[in-house]
Amino acid sequence: MKSKRIEWIDFGKGFTILMVVLGHVVLGLFESRKFENSNTVLLFLTQVFYLFHIPVFYALSGFFFKPVVDLKKFWNYFKQKTIILGVPYLFYSVLQFILQTIGGESVRNAASLADLLQIYKTPLSVSWYLYVLWWIYLVVGLISIRVKSYNQLFLISLFAYILSLFFPVNIYIIQKVLLWSFFFIFGYWLKKSGLTMFLLEQWKWITSLSIGVIIMFLIFWQQSSPSFYISYDTPGLWGLIFSVSVVLAFTCYPILNNFKRFGTYFSKIGRNSLVIYLLHAPIVSITRIILLKLNISNIYVHLILGLLLGWYGSLFILYLIKKVSYVDFVFYPMKYLKKKTE
Questions:
Q1: What's the number of domains the chain is made of?
Q2: Does the residue 52 lie in any domain?
Q3: Average pLDDT for 155-179
Q4: Domain, as residue range, for 82
Q5: pTM score of the predicted model
Q6: Any coiled-coil ranges, and where (predicted)?
Q7: I need a surface site. Which of 65, 183, 255, 282 has the fewest CB within 10 A?
């Protein structure tokens, strides 16, 4: 029996993936160093999107987490998560390598064959989210065999989070798991503790307070003369702001979802957010490269076309993929393998 979908969670994934697309369009322009006169604005906009979308995505993913009963159940759990995340991870990595190879000198920091062969330890581009999420499921799942209390899981993840901020570990996946598992468990904890209902009941003042804190942070951050957005590896004290973004999202998303057409549109998008996440990145990059090759340097043209092609291009490819049987296996492998893994 299929579990009933929670509409505002689907909405949240859909709305957040829009911010991911926007963030990558803006970041790509900033990192290209072709728009020096707009670098300050581009960096500021990048920071706005980046302090929000990935922390919220991990929290939305953790919302549905369930502690693993025992080691026997863990094996099935491990296989399922590996298939669900591993197949699209491999597909994207190969696609990214092929496209960057075709792009040649037009591509900054293109992945080599050696990079592709080492994706088991170092992910390519945006696929890092899937790689880290798989590790989070693995680590949190193992811990949950012994620790069933959502409060205890939250405290463990909070300790790991503080450790990652103030005493970062110089090993990629360990640091990533220490940092991002907190947001994964934060989403789970908000659900289990009943605080999601409290946030909904008190949404006006919580939204105002959250936005106020974020605005104050952005002003203070801007005054520090930053050269890049807050690191997703070692954010330091700055990383504390990410949790405010999660609170804001979990407060506003149930409200925004109630706006019929707006809510319905992004709820449908949210059910395919992973596909859009993987497809938009190469589309956005190709769009920027082609425009620069054509000597089009108007930043507004880049922003508008980057967003439109990144968004609607992904949706169009998704539409085509769903029209042909088995083609969508690379994104929805469990759709075809579920009976074999049960």
A1: 1
A2: yes
A3: 96
A4: 7-341
A5: 0.94
A6: none
A7: 255
The region of weakest confidence among 76-80, 141-145, 273-277, 338-342 is 338-342
70 pLDDT more than 70: yes
pLDDT band of 103, cuts 50, 70, 90? confident
* Residue 1 included in any domain: no
2 lies in some domain: no
d(CA 183, CA 61): 9
- At 260, the pLDDT band (50, 70, 90 cuts) reads confident
Q: Span 52-73, mean pLDDT?
A: 95
pLDDT-based confidence at 342, cuts 50/70/90? very low
Given a contact cutoff of 8 angstroms between Cβ atoms, the answer to whether 44 and 237 are in contact is no
SS (H, E, C) the chain: CCCCCCHHHHHHHHHHHHHHHHHHHHHHHHHHCCCHHHHHHHHHHHHHHHCCHHHHHHHHHHCCCCCCCCHHHHHHHHHHHHHHHHHHHHHHHHHHHHHHHHHHHHCCCCCCHHHHHCCCCCCCHHHHHHHHHHHHHHHHHHHHHHCCCHHHHHHHHHHHHHHHHHCCCCCHHHHHHHHHHHHHHHHHHHHHCCHHHHHHHCHHHHHHHHHHHHHHHHHHHHHCCCCCCCCCCCCHHHHHHHHHHHHHHHHHHHHHCCCHHHHHHHHHHHCCHHHHHHHHHHHHHHHHHHHHHCCCCCHHHHHHHHHHHHHHHHHHHHHHHHHCCCHHHHCCCHHHHHHHHC
- Residue 1 pLDDT greater than 50, yes or no: no
How far is 313 from 82, CA to CA, in rounded Å?
Answer: 28
Does the pLDDT of residue 4 top 80, yes or no? no
> How many angstroms separate the first and last alpha carbons of the chain?
13
